[in-house]
Design goal:
Shape: rod-shaped
Strand order of the largest sheet: 3-4-5-6
Strand content: 25-35%
Structural class: alpha+beta
Radius of gyration: 34 Å
Number of helices: 5
Distance between the termini: 121 Å
Helix content: 40-55%
Number of strands: 6
Largest sheet: 4 strands, antiparallel
Length: about 210
């Protein structure tokens, strides 16, 4: 009887040790999980704080701003760059100085391919006819196809031109193709791109509306 009691006592002790060991393992696992979550939360909080910057407004007040990866907005900047080039290059007034001013600004956004197309129009007397005929020309961008997955970025632009004469308005379909490479940002080139291999794929009349 005594041996049976001793056996039961040893068995109870062994069972207790197993339970303690299980509880200890569970406790360690829970502690590791809590520590891991705390570290992850701390890292995430630190990352969010690093995205916040404070801008001093004329030395008077602080304004909160958010920082982003510059590459995140490159497709948007690419489209804006191409849009600005088309507005400058294809918006023409019957004024020689205005035409030359717009062209100089457009050439700062592009390479020699745009200048070559401009020289071709000059040789054909395109701008002289606009000036002598008192014609205004404006351009509206309809859409763009920008492939930002491959560098240099390829952009295809679909736009409409409106040739405004005293007697009528001619609407034209304008389709162009180009490539964009990264360049230095400046006041004349805020998006930091250079437009290359500029080609006009289509420029044909759609309709003529009498005024």
């Amino acid at each position: 009887m005594k041996k049976i009691m001793e056996f039961k006592s040893l068995k109870n002790i062994e069972t207790s040790f197993k339970q303690i060991r299980i509880y200890a393992i569970l406790f360690v696992v829970i502690c590791l999980c809590v520590c891991g979550y705390a570290l992850f939360s701390s890292y995430s909080f630190a990352e969010r704080q690093r995205e916040k910057i404070y801008v001093l407004d004329n030395g008077k007040s602080l304004m909160l701003a958010l920082s982003q990866d510059a590459a995140f907005n490159r497709p948007v900047e690419a489209r804006e760059h191409v849009k600005r080039f088309h507005e400058l290059f294809f918006t023409v007034a019957p004024d020689k100085d205005a035409i030359e001013s717009n062209m100089r600004r457009a050439f700062m956004l592009s390479d020699k391919s745009a200048y070559d197309y401009y020289k071709d129009l000059m040789e054909k007397g395109y701008f002289n006819r606009i000036i002598s005929g008192n014609i205004n020309q404006r351009t509206e961008i309809d859409s763009m196809q920008c492939n930002s997955d491959a560098y240099p970025y390829k952009v295809k632009t679909f736009a409409r031109q409106f040739i405004i004469r005293q007697s009528n308005i001619t609407e034209r379909s304008l389709i162009t193709d180009c490539e964009l490479i990264n360049s230095v940002r400046s006041d004349n080139n805020p998006q930091g791109f250079t437009l290359e291999r500029f080609v006009v794929l289509q420029n044909q009349d759609l309709q003529i509306v009498k005024r």
